[in-house]
Recover the amino acids of this structure.
């Protein structure tokens, strides 16, 4: 596993030599009785300002030369990150000398891509944090920060190297009063979490780097549908499911409130995060997207209800009520709820009572115009008149804020398809349906509607859907029979999201039936 260091810098020892598997195996057998303390001296294992002449481990394979070159660049990156400019060697061309975050991201990305490089990189990190002349100096602290960030992303799969890493962290954490000891303890925590939660998909984001180098959990804002947010801390391996539980506790939502999830919102793009996805991965993914597209937008991790199962909410939970209220308001404003102009004016009047207070002749029409801009769908705003909103506001004059909120949500819930997630789709597969459609998915099944219409053109329960197949830009749904059934092909960039929603509602139904049958079987005989 370890590559024997060259004894002298002569032509034979510095010339790159490649051995085949048989030759390597013979060398290993020949060294079985060798004195490894003489071969691998203390300098091999301990900190060095000088560049490595060769990788610490044997990098076998067809691309061995390329891997060795990358391994040396990884060590160069460690030195650069620590503030040392090696006299020889070179780093990655994509990185500026003072861009520490990009250095970290590129190095950890290489470790994620190649297991051999991951093993080598950890040997290098252990070497550079061993027998450091100044344990609390800047160079050692920088190396330990690199260690902590790497431990939160990827762990070595080689058990020998993993055991060696763990032993190193335990030894260095024995003195918790030094900076080295504190970083070693933090690195051990990150490592243990990554071992349990498995490797990440992406390197750390800029925000993650800024938190981890201070030995702190990642701190990020989580937004709600009323535009409010809460700051929440989580570790580098935290999954969507774990963070949802933390957010629920943070805002006081009852633990039994089900169906909530996190959504990646980037401008007009929205995507539900799967339960086992790492939140830190989402942060890096959208940070990279913004950088590559030169977009000024930033990721908003949004908390809202995804699965609506009757009775939809607990009437005694005021937190859940407000969450669903503002989610309903957002659905109306975002044109995801079928609405006539008169209904939009009625709902705007309810919001005016809440925002502007009780009706008064002193309220200017400009204020009602602001209400229209905030609470009426964009395509209706030129047709909604401030005078009509003012008239509805006057009609609601005796209602309290809570009564207005209850009436608003009651109106939304009167739609038979309330709780459906609405997707804009196109179809050209059949002439019997319009081209522009809404696809509504809820606990009862899948419903196809004309855009902005309340009555579905056709609905299918989940038991009638025999196949659904998403691709990058299309979703195919087959109903009743694979051979003689009805097939629909929808054009949508959210095909995967729709498929996951169908799958999750199906699981809810199966679990409900299982519990129902289990309860029936336990009933005592009459």
């Amino acid at each position: 596993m370890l590559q024997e260091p060259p004894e002298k810098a002569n032509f034979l020892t510095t010339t790159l030599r490649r051995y085949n598997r048989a030759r390597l195996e013979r060398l290993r057998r020949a060294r079985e009785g060798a004195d490894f303390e003489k071969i691998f001296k203390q300098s091999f294992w301990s900190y060095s300002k000088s560049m490595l002449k060769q990788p610490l481990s044997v990098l076998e394979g067809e691309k061995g030369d390329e891997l060795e070159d990358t391994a040396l660049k990884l060590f160069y990156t460690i030195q650069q990150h620590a503030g040392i400019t090696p006299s020889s060697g070179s780093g990655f061309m994509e990185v500026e000398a003072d861009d520490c975050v990009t250095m970290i991201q590129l190095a950890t990305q290489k470790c994620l891509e190649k297991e051999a490089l991951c093993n080598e990189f950890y040997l290098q990190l252990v070497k550079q944090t061993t027998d450091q002349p100044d344990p609390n100096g800047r160079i050692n602290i920088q190396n330990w920060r690199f260690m902590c960030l790497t431990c939160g992303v990827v762990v070595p799969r080689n058990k020998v190297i993993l055991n060696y890493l763990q032993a190193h962290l335990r030894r260095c954490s024995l003195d918790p009063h030094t900076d080295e000891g504190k970083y070693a303890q933090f690195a051990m925590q990150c490592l243990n979490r990554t071992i349990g939660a498995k490797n990440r998909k992406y390197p750390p984001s800029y925000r993650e780097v800024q938190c981890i180098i201070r030995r702190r959990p990642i701190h990020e804002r989580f937004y709600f549908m009323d535009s409010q947010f809460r700051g929440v801390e989580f570790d580098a391996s935290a999954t969507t499911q774990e963070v949802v539980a933390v957010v629920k506790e943070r805002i006081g939502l009852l633990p039994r409130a089900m169906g909530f999830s996190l959504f990646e919102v980037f401008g007009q793009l929205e995507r539900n995060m799967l339960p086992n996805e790492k939140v830190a991965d989402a942060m890096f993914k959208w940070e990279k997207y913004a950088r590559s597209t030169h977009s000024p937008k930033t990721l908003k991790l949004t908390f809202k209800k995804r699965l609506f199962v009757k009775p939809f909410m607990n009437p005694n939970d005021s937190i859940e009520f407000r969450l669903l209220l503002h989610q309903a308001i957002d659905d109306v404003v975002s044109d995801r709820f079928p609405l006539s102009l008169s209904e939009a004016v009625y709902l705007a009047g309810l919001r005016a009572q809440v925002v502007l207070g009780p009706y008064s002749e002193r309220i200017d029409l400009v204020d009602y115009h602001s209400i229209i801009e905030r609470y009426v769908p964009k395509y209706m705003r030129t047709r909604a008149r401030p005078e009509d909103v003012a008239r509805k506001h006057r009609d609601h004059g005796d209602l309290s804020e809570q009564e207005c909120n209850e009436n608003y949500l009651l109106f939304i819930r009167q739609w038979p398809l309330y709780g459906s997630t609405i997707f804009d789709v196109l179809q050209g597969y059949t002439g019997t349906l319009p081209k522009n459609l809404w696809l509504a998915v809820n606990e009862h099944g899948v419903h196809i509607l004309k855009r902005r219409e309340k009555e579905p053109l056709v609905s299918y329960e989940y038991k009638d859907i025999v196949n659904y197949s998403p691709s990058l830009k299309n979703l195919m749904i087959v109903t009743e029979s694979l051979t003689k059934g009805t097939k629909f092909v929808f054009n949508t960039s959210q095909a995967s999201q729709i498929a996951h929603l169908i799958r999750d509602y199906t699981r809810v139904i199966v679990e409900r039936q299982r519990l129902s049958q289990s309860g029936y079987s336990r009933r005592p005989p009459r």
The longest strand covers residues 260-266. The chain has a mean pLDDT of 91. The chain has 19 helices and twelve strands.
